[in-house]
Amino acid sequence: SYYTHKETIRFGTGLLGEHWGIQGRLSNISSKGYIDRASADMGSYFLQGGYFSDNTVVKFVTFNGKEETYHAWNYASKYEQELYGRTFNSCGLYYDEQGNMKYYKDQKDFYHQQHYQLLWDQRLMNHWKLNAGLHYTKGTGYYQQYKYDTKLSKFGLNPNDFHSADGKEVKRTDLINQKWMDNDFYGIVASANYDNKNGLAINIGGGWNRYNGDHFGRLLWIKNFTGNPTDKDYYHNDARKIDGNVYGKVTWEFAKGLSAFVDLQYRHVSLRMNGPMDEWDGDAQLAFNERVRYDFFNPKAGLFYDISDNLKAYGSVAIAHKEPTRNDYEENLGTKLNAEKLTDYELGMKYMSERFSA
């Protein structure tokens, strides 16, 4: 249907020499789409190799995904559907010199993401387990579009760099632009878990992660432009985010059927954003200039009571915090933003039998 197809191939070695193994998968999905020109082409792979024993597992994992889709973001009104049909797609639409409707063939969204992970799980004696992971993710992509009769001021263009057949000042023109993302995400997570098999469990751990994200725009072509549109980015801002945490959790059954838990986490977030945005206030280009730090303490505690095999009750209270997002800063430039804080109270009872649950 609409030239839609999917192919997948999986493979695995089983255990080699009783301890080693490799697994993998390749996939592709493509379609021309129901909406006009709303094509999609997506591919991915997964590959894992590792050492496996009773007490130790070490794995290297890599996987990726890429997608290329034609824009189909705009809705079609009833009026447009009556004129052009139910599958009308206005993305990529422009008019030539004679006023004829045309569609830009490369009105596309492209993104590729690559993951690498090194994972280690270790059992120590009967009560302790350790695990750690290193990870790195690379993402890059853009969306490209034809902008018909758009304002020069949105792209920082100078009217003096244009020639017009009628000699009038140029304030609007056609152009093709790309908006890019180029990001790196990497870090380490680790934990130690203790269980005495007699009602006491302890988990301690933490992680450190860094995200580097560049956002920038490029102009590929500008109608009636006398210069070189690819000389420089028309905006370029970057973000650097460091996120670290440590935590400890204790669960203890201090009486038959009655247990409690306490979970304490400290989290630190450091965020920096710099550079000009793709937004303008009159003739002034807006820019990020943010350096902020957040320190959060997130405690949780609760009780669980197994009244009988069929009836259980619980109660808990938890506090969580969340830092502002990139969009929050973009919409509130120059404003000090507070983190969100949530206090959650829960109380419940659950009954289950062979024929009834509530």
Folded structure, characterized:
The protein is mainly β. It has helices at residues 78-84, 326-331; strands at residues 5-12, 20-31, 40-52, 56-70, 93-95, 101-103, 108-124, 128-151, 172-195, 200-222, 235-255, 258-281, 284-306, 311-322, 340-351. It is built from two helices and 15 strands. The strands form two sheets. A 13-stranded antiparallel beta sheet has the order 1-2-3-4-7-8-9-10-11-12-13-14-15, with no helix packed on it. A two-stranded antiparallel sheet has the order 5-6. A hairpin with a 4-residue loop joins strand 13 and strand 14. The longest helix has 7 residues, at 78-84. The mean pLDDT is 94.
How do the helices and strands line up, and which of them pair or pack?
Elements (H helix, E strand, L loop, with lengths): L4 E8 L7 E12 L8 E13 L3 E15 L7 H7 L8 E3 L5 E3 L4 E17 L3 E24 L20 E24 L4 E23 L12 E21 L2 E24 L2 E23 L4 E12 L3 H6 L8 E12 L7
Antiparallel strand pairs: 1-2, 2-3, 3-4, 4-7, 5-6, 7-8, 8-9, 9-10, 10-11, 11-12, 12-13, 13-14, 14-15
Supply the key terms:
358 residues; mainly beta; 13-stranded antiparallel sheet; two-stranded antiparallel ribbon; 2 helices; 15 strands; 4% helix; elongated
Major sheet: size, sense and barrel closure? 13 strands, antiparallel
Shape: elongated
Structural class category: mainly beta
Number of strands: 15
Helix content: under 10%
Widest sheet: strand order?
A: 1-2-3-4-7-8-9-10-11-12-13-14-15
The rounded Rg comes to 28 Å
* Total of DSSP H or I helical runs spanning 4+ residues: 2
Termini separation (Å)? 44 Å
Q: Which spans of ≥5 residues are poorly predicted at pLDDT below 50? A: none
SS strand fraction:
over 45%
What is the average of the pLDDT values?
A: 94
Order of helices and strands: EEEEHEEEEEEEEEEHE
